[in-house]
Design a protein that fits this description.
Number of strands: 4
Shape: globular
Bound molecules: cytidine-5'-diphosphate, magnesium ion
CATH topology: Alpha-Beta Plaits
Strand order of the largest sheet: 2-3-1-4
Largest sheet: 4 strands, antiparallel
Order of helices and strands: EHHEHHHEHHHEHH
Helix content: 40-55%
Strand content: 15-25%
CATH architecture: 2-Layer Sandwich
Number of domains: 1
Length: 185
């Protein structure tokens, strides 16, 4: 049940000076940082992290958001998703990202809870997106920019394994004991 998850502090978190604030939230839960670095990715790499298979998924989610917001469109999920994907690649390459691998019991699920809902307007107060990101994905898409929701966290264990292998070489990940180990054994 000890899992590893990939967390990315996206360009908006770095540019807004929220790196320390966000990392502190993970540290205080007792999650172990086993890898950490700053990288400025290009579009070729960004597309590996956000492959084109994401297009219909984000398109459908955003169409549902727009419906809830009363925004009418004749765009299909594929068309809207293609625009979102393009904006997302722009956004994730416009400044450096802080990438880290966190380890802990049920880490993937616990981290998703700390991060909050994808669209910050639905993220609970106390979550990172709920506390620091005053937008919605539906709004960002309507205005034609990538949804600045501060952070990425792997969605499930399989996604985490794939993403960690993409972002980190084995030698960049460390095994060490922390004070929290005694409390989770
Ligand atoms: O990041 P998360 O796993 O919560 O959400 P996702 O559905 O996997 O979407 C990936 C990313 O696409 C989001 O985190 C947003 O940065 C971006 N997105 C966007 O820019 N505009 C949208 N309308 C929907 C998603
Ligand atoms: Mg996701």
């Amino acid at each position: 049940m000890i899992e590893r998850s990939l967390v990315l502090l996206k360009p908006d978190a770095v540019q807004r000076g929220l790196i320390g604030e966000i990392i502190a939230r993970f540290e205080r839960t007792g999650l172990k940082i086993v890898g950490l670095k700053m990288v400025w990715i290009n579009k070729d790499f960004a597309i590996k992290h956000y492959p084109e298979t994401l297009i219909p998924i984000v398109g459908k989610k955003t169409l549902d958001d727009w419906k809830e917001m009363g925004i009418e469109t004749d765009k299909t999920a594929e068309q809207l998703g293609a625009q979102i994907h393009k904006d997302l690649l722009e956004f994730t390459t416009e400044a450096p990202i802080v990438a880290m691998v966190l380890e802990g019991v049920h880490a993937v699920l616990i981290i998703r809870k700390i991060v909050g809902h994808t669209s910050p307007h639905k993220a609970e107060p106390g979550t990172i997106r709920g506390d620091y990101s005053p937008i919605s994905m539906g709004y960002a898409t309507q205005r034609g920019f990538g949804g600045r929701n501060l952070i990425h966290a792997s969605g499930n264990v399989k996604e985490a394994e794939h993403e960690i292998a993409l972002w980190f070489k084995p030698g960049e990940l460390f095994k060490y004991s922390s004070v929290h180990d005694a409390h989770v054994q």
